[in-house]
Amino acid sequence: MLLEWAKELGLVGIGNLTPSFGGIIAIALLGTVGVIRAMATTLGEEIGWRGFFIYELRKVLPFSAVSLFSGIVWASWHWPLIIYYGGNIALELTTFFVVIISMSFIMTYYTFKSSSLWPAVIFHAVSNVYVQKIFPPLTSKIEGSEN
Length: 147
Fold this sequence. Notes:
Blueprint: H1 2-8, H2 19-58, H3 63-77, H4 79-85, H5 89-114, H6 118-139
Helix pairs in contact: 1-2, 2-3, 2-6, 3-5, 5-6
C-alpha cells in the first residue's frame, strides 16, 4: 500500500527516495492535507452535533448524560452505513458504538471547555481520515503483506 501511495503521488523514482519513504510522505500528506479537506465535511456535521445538539441537551442533562446520549444518537445516525458496507455486522456495530460514544465524551468535553466547535471538527476529521483512509489498507490482510 505504501508503494501504491508513493506511485500515486509520483514519488517513486525521485533521486534516492525509497518506496517506503514515499509511502511515509503519502501518510504525512493524508494526515495533514487530507485532514484539512475532511474538515470541510466534518464542520457541517459538528455544527449540528456539537454546535446545537449538546448545548440543547446540556439545558436538561448533566455532562455524562449529554455525552452518552449524544454519542448513542450520533452512532445510531451512522448505522445504515455499517449495515450497507459491513461484513460482520454485529461486531462492527458493537465496536462502532463503543468508539463513537467514547469519542462523544472527548468531543463534548473539549467543545464545552473551549466554547468552540474547532476541537471537535479537527478530532472528527482526523478520526475519519485515519479510520477510513490510512488504517484499513495498512491493516488489511493482502497477499504478500505478511512478510
